[in-house]
C-alpha cells in the first residue's frame, strides 16, 4: 500500500519518504494530516476511486504504528459498507507492505484537500470514542466529485466497481434485518418497511428513518427498548411496547443525562444495530421530544446474506406530518384545515405546509436518498 503524505504528515511521522516507488492507483492513497475539533485527523483519498477513509483523534503514540492503523481503518470502513470479509482481505493482502512517499502531483493534492474540506460538514459524526470513522468516511465518499474528464463520479461506486474486478465476483454480503416502522398517529396511517444492514450504527438508523419518513432532522431523537421486546417476551404486537417498562434508551446527546429516568441510558454513538437486533425484536424511535413522534419498530425477519451496500425501502404508505405542527393533535387540525378550502386559514396552512416540506410519500425518492446514506 502506497501512502503519499503531505509535508506536514511526514514531519509528524518523522520518517524519510521513499522515492521512485510505483504502485497501482487502486492501492495508492494521498494522505493529509489536519486538525478537526483540536484533534489530529488523517484523511486518506484513494488515487483511483477518490474513496475516503478517515482516522480521527490520532495521538502521538498512534503514529508509531500508523501503518497498522491505516490498514485497519480501511478494513473497518469497507466492512461497514457491507463488503465481504474475503474481498477486504484480498484487497489488503494484494498490497500488504505499507510504503510512505511524498505527494505525487498538484491534482492529487487538490482532490485530497477537497475531501478534507468536506469533512467539516459532518461534525456530529466525529467523536473521540474510536479512532476509526467509517460513518463519516462513507458520507464523504458518497459526495459527487469531478474526475477531470468532464464527468462526475461517486467515489463509493468507483470503489465497489474496482473491488469487484479485483475479486472476480459480487462483493456484498452482510447480515441485515427487515423492519416495519409505524408512526403512531391518531386516525391516520404512516408506515415503512425497510431493510437495514446490521453492521450499521443507531445514528445511521436515525438517518435512514429521517429519509424514510421525510423528516428534516432538526430535533433530538432517541431509541428505547422495552420489557417484552425480546423473543419469548409477552408483547404480541409492536404497538403494545409503550405500555411496557423501558429497560434501555439510546440517546443522541449528553444533555439527555440531565433529566432523571429510572432505566439505563447510553449514548448511541458507535453502537451497532447488531448489539441489540434481532435480540430485541421491538423498540421505539422517538423524534422531536416536543411533538413526541413515536415510531414503533418491529424486526420482521433477519436476512443472512444481504447483497446491497445500502438500506432499501420495500414499501410503505401514508404521509409524514410537517415539522413543528404540534404533535398528533396539531396534525389532525392541520389536515382538517387542508380538507376545507373555505376555512379562513386554508391558504396560510397550505403555504406553511409546503414550506415545512409536507408532501406525498414517494418511495422512489426515498430510495434515491437511502442509496447515498
UniProtKB/TrEMBL annotation:
InterPro entries: DUF6933, MM3350-like_sf, Plasmid_pRiA4b_Orf3-like. Residues 176-367 form the Plasmid pRiA4b Orf3-like domain. SUPFAM superfamilies: MM3350-like (SSF159941). It comes from the Bacteria. Pfam families: DUF6933, PRiA4_ORF3. Residues 2-158 form the DUF6933 domain. PANTHER family: LEXA REPRESSOR-RELATED, TNPR PROTEIN. This is PRiA4b ORF-3-like protein. It comes from Mesobacillus persicus.
Amino acid at each position: 500500500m502506497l501512502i503519499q503524505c503531505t509535508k506536514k504528515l511526514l514531519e509528524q511521522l518523522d520518517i524519510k519518504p521513499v522515492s521512485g516507488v510505483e504502485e497501482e492507483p487502486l492501492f495508492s492513497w494521498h494522505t493529509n494530516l489536519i486538525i478537526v475539533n483540536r484533534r489530529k485527523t488523517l484523511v486518506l483519498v484513494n488515487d483511483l476511486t477518490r474513496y475516503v477513509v478517515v482516522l480521527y483523534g490520532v495521538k502521538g503514540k498512534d503514529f508509531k504504528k500508523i501503518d497498522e492503523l491505516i490498514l485497519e481503518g480501511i478494513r473497518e470502513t469497507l466492512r461497514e459498507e457491507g463488503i465481504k470479509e474475503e474481498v477486504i482481505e484480498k484487497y489488503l493482502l494484494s498490497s500488504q507492505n505499507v510504503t510512505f512517499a511524498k505527494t505525487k502531483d498538484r491534482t492529487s493534492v487538490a482532490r485530497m484537500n477537497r475531501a478534507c474540506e468536506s469533512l467539516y460538514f459532518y461534525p456530529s459524526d466525529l467523536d473521540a470514542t474510536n479512532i476509526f470513522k467509517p460513518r463519516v468516511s462513507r458520507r464523504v465518499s458518497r459526495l459527487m466529485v469531478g474526475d477531470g474528464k468532464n464527468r462526475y463520479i461517486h467515489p463509493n461506486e468507483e470503489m465497489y466497481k474496482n473491488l469487484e474486478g479485483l475479486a472476480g465476483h459480487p462483493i456484498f454480503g452482510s447480515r441485515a434485518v427487515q423492519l416495519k416502522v409505524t408512526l403512531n398517529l391518531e386516525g391516520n396511517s404512516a408506515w415503512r418497511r425497510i431493510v437495514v444492514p446490521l453492521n450499521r450504527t443507531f445514528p445511521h438508523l436515525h438517518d435512514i428513518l429521517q429519509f424514510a419518513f421525510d423528516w428534516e432532522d432538526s430535533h433530538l431523537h432517541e431509541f428505547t427498548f422495552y420489557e417484552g421486546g425480546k423473543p419469548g417476551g409477552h408483547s404480541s404486537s409492536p404497538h403494545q411496547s409503550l405500555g411496557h417498562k423501558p429497560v434501555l434508551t439510546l440517546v443522541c446527546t449528553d444533555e439527555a443525562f440531565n433529566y432523571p429516568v429510572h432505566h439505563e441510558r447510553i449514548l448511541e454513538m458507535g453502537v451497532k444495530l447488531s448489539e441489540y437486533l434481532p435480540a430485541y425484536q421491538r423498540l421505539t424511535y422517538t423524534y422531536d421530544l416536543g411533538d413526541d413522534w413515536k415510531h414503533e419498530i418491529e424486526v420482521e425477519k433477519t436476512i443472512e446474506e444481504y447483497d446491497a451496500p445500502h438500506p432499501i425501502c420495500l414499501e410503505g404508505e401514508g404521509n409524514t406530518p410537517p415539522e413543528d405542527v404540534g404533535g398528533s393533535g396539531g396534525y389532525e387540525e392541520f389536515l382538517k384545515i387542508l380538507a376545507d378550502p373555505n376555512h379562513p386559514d386554508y391558504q396560510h396552512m397550505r403555504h406553511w405546509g409546503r414550506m415545512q416540506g409536507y408532501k406525498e410519500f414517494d418511495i422512489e425518492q426515498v430510495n434515491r436518498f437511502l442509496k447515498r446514506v
